[in-house]
From TrEMBL:
Source species taxonomy: Bacteria, Bacillati, Actinomycetota, Actinomycetes, Micromonosporales
Further remark: During catalysis, the active site Cys acts as a nucleophile attacking the alpha-carbonyl group of tRNA-bound glutamate with the formation of a thioester intermediate between enzyme and glutamate, and the concomitant release of tRNA(Glu). The thioester intermediate is finally reduced by direct hydride transfer from NADPH, to form the product GSA.
Binding site for substrate: T49, C50, N51, R52, S109, E114, S115, Q116, Q120
Site label Important for activity, positions: H99
Presence of the UniProt keyword NADP in the record: yes
UniProt organism field: Paractinoplanes tereljensis
Domain Quinate/shikimate 5-dehydrogenase/glutamyl-tRNA reductase: 171-297
UniProt KW Repeat keyword: no
Role noted for this protein: Catalyzes the NADPH-dependent reduction of glutamyl-tRNA(Glu) to glutamate 1-semialdehyde (GSA).
Name this polypeptide is given: Glutamyl-tRNA reductase
Alphabetical list of CDD domains matching this protein: NAD_bind_Glutamyl_tRNA_reduct
Domain Tetrapyrrole biosynthesis glutamyl-tRNA reductase dimerisation stretches: 313-411
């Protein structure tokens, strides 16, 4: 099995494309099952955020796996595969590990160093575990990815410049509203992004803060946790008229803020952080209403961590990638070593059968003594070379040792060779 990551983000796709690609929470399990049912895909994890949709997969071949993943993404988004290709980035094996670790460290985020991605990765891994779509390879990758992200945030100052997309969006909003201290805010949606919005608004001194959500219970819990006020969803229009600033981050498949609704709201700034967008396409030019969406945040982001912090995180990532690749190379040779030991046991068993057929006079005790002695001899002969070959396999270029063992002893090891070759570009786009 080989690692493959295929995705689209704010770097490669506009908000309209990301809207079509985004995977609702209730659809993740179905997508995971669809992915692992493909011919070349053995394991899968789906990461879907407001500015990123990505598939991490364990595949039996680059071209076949890439084709399977792209076809599934095309099917669920309704975007023709030929059109979709121009918006996707692709990473394979070592590059996939590097990309995964950089994502968890916040180096690939719209706001460099933001830590929200760690929770999103954790949720993606949890969903794959529940769907039983993550096997040994992706379990190890996801666990190490989360660990690397935690290291980056705890051992460096990478996240000092901005905590999240919400922070960046508020910086854009302050250009319209001035000092946000004391401004009235309304948060629409009580999911992960809504909760982050309430927390960020509270820290920034914005207030009063109101929360509305289709599920009143979730809004009540969130309001209680932050000293905010929960508003029934059917009173949304009145709440809009009382707000200076609105953050909308629902999981609705249809626009929540229609043109007629915003025309009655009066003057306000709306941060639309939802994917798909919560603001209707025909409502972006309503008089007195300023709309700030993900694209606007991406275009205006300025807060960057210090170069020293970024360099420190890059060093952590580089070292951790090499450590993971060492584990991966060691794991790749394990089936070959196991096959060698099995071959030795088979030869020993066959020779013992021949001996017993010739020496029927051996007692059971004598047979047991001979068997134990031969077993110890075989184990001792194999011990040093198998330990050493594991060590050599963990080094760069170590895959040649596994191939050599297979050739020397004519071992049949399933999945020992790739189904197809990796492109010269290394599988990166």
């Amino acid at each position: 099995m080989n690692l493959l990551s295929v995705g689209a983000s704010y770097r490669t796709a506009d908000i309209g494309t990301l809207e079509r690609l985004t995977i609702a929470d209730g659809e993740v399990q179905q997508l995971l099952h669809k992915l692992v049912s493909q011919p070349y895909v053995g394991e899968a994890v789906v990461l879907s955020t407001c500015n990123r949709v990505e598939i991490f997969a364990a595949v039996t071949g680059f071209h076949g796996g890439l084709g399977d993943v792209c076809n599934v993404l095309s099917e669920v988004s309704g975007i023709p595969a030929t059109d979709l290709a121009g918006h996707l980035y692709v990473h394979y094996d070592e590059a996939a590990v590097l990309h995964s670790f950089r994502v968890s460290a916040g180096l690939d985020s719209m706001v460099v160093g933001e830590s929200q991605i760690l929770g999103q990765l954790r949720d993606a891994y949890h969903a794959a575990t529940e769907a039983d779509s993550a096997g040994r390879l992706l379990h190890e990758l996801m666990q190490q990815t989360l660990r690397v992200g935690k290291r980056a945030h705890s051992e460096t100052g990478i996240d000092k410049a901005g905590q999240s997309v919400v922070t960046a969006a508020l910086e854009v909003a302050s250009a319209q509203l001035g000092d946000l201290d004391g401004k009235s805010a309304l948060v629409i949606g009580a999911g992960a992004m809504g909760a982050l919005s309430v927390a960020t608004l509270t820290r920034a001194g914005v207030g009063p803060v109101r929360i509305t959500n289709r599920s009143a219970e979730r809004a009540d819990r969130l309001a209680e946790a932050y000293g905010a006020v929960a508003v029934p969803f059917d009173e949304l229009d009145a709440a809009l008229r009382e707000a200076d600033l609105v953050i909308s981050a629902t999981a609705s498949s249809e626009p929540v803020l229609t043109r007629s609704r915003l025309e009655q709201a009066g003057s306000l700034v709306v941060l639309d952080l939802a994917v798909p967008r919560d603001v209707a396409r025909d409502a972006t030019d309503v008089d007195g209403v300023t709309i700030i969406d993900i694209d606007s945040v991406a275009a205006s982001r300025q807060a960057m961590p210090a170069a020293a912090d970024t360099a420190a995180v890059e060093q952590i990532v580089t070292a951790e990638v090499e450590h993971f690749l060492g584990w991966l190379r060691g794991a790749d040779i394990a089936p070959t070593v196991a096959a060698l030991r099995t071959r030795a046991e088979d030869v020993m068993t066959a020779e013992l059968r021949k001996l017993w057929s010739r020496r029927a006079d051996f007692t059971e005790e004598q047979r047991a003594d001979v068997s134990r002695t031969l077993h110890r001899v075989v184990q001792q002969l194999l011990h040093s070379p198998t330990v050493r070959v594991r060590q050599l396999a963990a080094e760069p270029g170590g895959d040649q040792y596994a191939a050599m063992l297979r050739e020397l002893f004519d071992l049949d090891v399933p999945h020992a060779t790739q189904a197809d070759a990796v492109p010269e570009i290394g599988g990166n786009r």
